Amino acid sequence: MNEDAIVLIFFVFCGGMLAQWVAWWFKLPAIVLLFSLGLLLGPGLELLHPSDLIGPLFHVLVSLAVALIVFEGGLALDFRQWQSAGEGVLRLTLVALPINWGLGALAAHYVGGLSWGPACLFGAIVVVTGPTVVLPLLRHAKLRPRVAAFLRWEAIVNDPVGAILATLVLEILLMKPNEGSSAFFTALLPHLVVSSAVAIGLGVAGGWGVKQLFIHDLMPEPLKMPLLLTLAMAVYALGTLFMDGAGLMASTVFGMALANMRVPGLGELQRMKESLVVLIVSLLFILLTADLQRAVLQHLSWSILALTCAVIFVVRPLGIYLATLGSALSWRERVFVGWIAPRGIVAAAVAGVAGIRLSEAGFESAQLVMPAVFAVIGSTMLLHGFSLRPLARRLKLTLSDVPALAIVGANPWSRDLAQAVFRAGTPVTLVDTAARPLIPARRAGVPVLRAEMLSEAGAESLEERPADYLIATTPDAIYNGMVCAHLAPHFGRARVYQVSPGVARLDEYRGLSRDARGKVFGLPEWNFTLLETLHQEGWRFQALEVTMATLDAFLHTRGDRLDFITLRPGAGISIHSAEDSAGTPPSAGDVVISLVPPSEPDAAVAGAQPVKAIEIAGSNAPAV
Length: 624
Description:
Blueprint (H helix, E strand, L loop, with lengths): L2 H24 L3 H15 L5 H5 L2 H18 L7 H29 L5 H10 L5 H11 L3 H29 L8 H34 L5 H22 L3 H15 L5 H25 L3 H4 L4 H22 L7 H9 L5 H16 L8 H26 L10 E4 L3 H12 L4 E5 L6 H5 L4 E3 L5 H8 L5 E4 L4 H15 L4 E4 L19 E3 L6 H9 L3 E6 L5 H5 L6 E7 L3 E4 L15 E6 L12 E2 L14
Parallel strand pairs: 1-2, 1-4, 2-3, 4-5, 5-6
Antiparallel strand pairs: 7-10, 7-11, 8-9, 8-10
């Protein structure tokens, strides 16, 4: 292996993972860091030129990777979302797309100075909002389900449709003058219809075949994941044989078919594939941006800058406004969707190929298509990546602006715990399978949810509530462990807790393994029976605010109470567990949720003051 290949592997893989981790730690959009790293390594320092190093296979590998990404996105398109988001999705995919195309072409011609042919191609390319950018942003944005569905469906569905549209525009522009309009109706249009039908058929047939293999136990577990990835690339390749862009449609439909056919065992495979897609997205953004030539960047001009501003600030908002007139979308949703439209890898790949073909055909200003598209991609990544969460908060389209807690299992002491957390101003949801145990909490104003957390519907219902941490508090230690293991991929294994299984030492516990349960809530000896007994004896949970004056006294009187949770303003939630190597003691300004004995006066618990009830904006408790 030559030195250039080693440099590529090191910078792309290590740099991609480092960018993802930095983005997670500092709550930044990872796509922006990946795009910037690619520009630095490629056109900036000229350390990487992937197409020169890999050769003609580079664009083939990029296309296959994009197929896997849209396949994974298709798995997130559940038709049950149409009940609440169907009208908006239809308007964004069927109505907004042609409007944005027309407005984009007009802007490219009159603002960017492109001739009509390249302008129409530019408008077709920038109608897509790439899932490679949108989906990673949605994972960290905590948007309300309906708004997230709008952006998710638009990005995934419009991606292949936009690629096909760009291909169709390109073929029309490259038609010979003597072919006339008859060639469009006799050749191109039938070819488009047949290719689309084949792509849909390939996707549905692939999903049906996988379901039959899985439900009849005809595929061993180690081969299921490779089978899905292989079929996703196979349907892409077969679809592409018919028409450019049809392969992306086939991969998307394949994912949608699997998601809506309820294929058993797909959940575990999907989580592994999501991790793989994170790696693929990281590699693609670095490689594609590193492959940009300085000559392309030299074409950037004031006219392209003006065109970029027109696309971002006029074309997209105006197109969404016109497409959603008379719809059920609220003005907040229309403003948000009209602004958030980051472009991604498909737009870059299509621009690279189409721009070259138009230039070779002699179209005036065709060389400006690629730099103009990349200017839109880079600008939307920066502007929309950094503004998505703040704008969503400003428009009140997020589930919660602060870390939230879910408590599974409604009993007297867990209801008391939920009320104490709620009074302290932290969003909390109390969950149980029965309605009766939830009634007292609902009357106290605590948001409640009646659902079975081990069911698919229950887990999806919880995802629609603000919840970043989970505590399972039912009397059944096995059930608590199953809930934590089932929801750990969603919350993170370090954020799911359960009441102690009832042993004084965890190393002597012979029940569920650590991978099949949550972290112990508090100390090992604080089991369900102890907490229930103490609550019956009059112990109650209180939210105690620690001040600078009372900090020393609070830290030296821990034996008088049981401390379970520390709420840190602006920093999140710290749940105490014996399995944490070193817990951070509370500091001045923190609020500690403690179980306090009845003999302690409310205002004299270690000198700390009980927190008065804090109203949480938008926390109306839903009906059971």
